[in-house]
Amino acid sequence: MQVRVTDVKRWVGREETLHFREAWPALVHERAEGPVRDPAEVTVVVRNTGGALVADLRGEAQMWVVCARCLTPFWLTVPFAAVEEFREEPGPYESDQDYYRYQGDHIDLDPIVADLVAVAAPLAPLCHPDCQGLCPVCGANRNETACGCERPADPRWEALTRWRPEPDPAEGARPARKTEHPRKD
User: Fold this and answer.
1) What is the pLDDT of residues 15-36, one digit of tens each?
2) Is residue 108 part of a domain?
3) Looking at the domain assignment, is residue 133 inside a domain?
């Protein structure tokens, strides 16, 4: 995605809004963890602040993901947004800079959009918020069927099944005896 900034960079305060509807850049497909559905729809507002150009990017990507609970694949709409600063100066982008460099009359947004899409994707996507997931016993998708399996007790909690609280003295039970320890002076 190339943004032509010939007119914007001439006048301080000038602003242009561009809407892209095109195929995703190859870099997006390389960095995304799964397929990304075309077309890309990205809105970019570029404004001249005097010392730099500021680009406000907003868009949505539709990504093919797998539900973290039930393993059902589905298309997920992932919104992304960023505000980036560009300065016209020679040299490549360096990771310790808080702005991007550009030369000439175009700004290349491909690496920025690719990073935004990759970072916006959730680590554990859910097909819907109340997804029941898979049965840990038989593996059935509990969103589609009620399998009726009993979940086995976790052996780490076994000791709690034998624990009983001490009776409360306020309820008339005999108070527990206090053991006194001799003082060491």
Assistant:
1) 999 999 988 888 888 888 888 8
2) yes
3) no
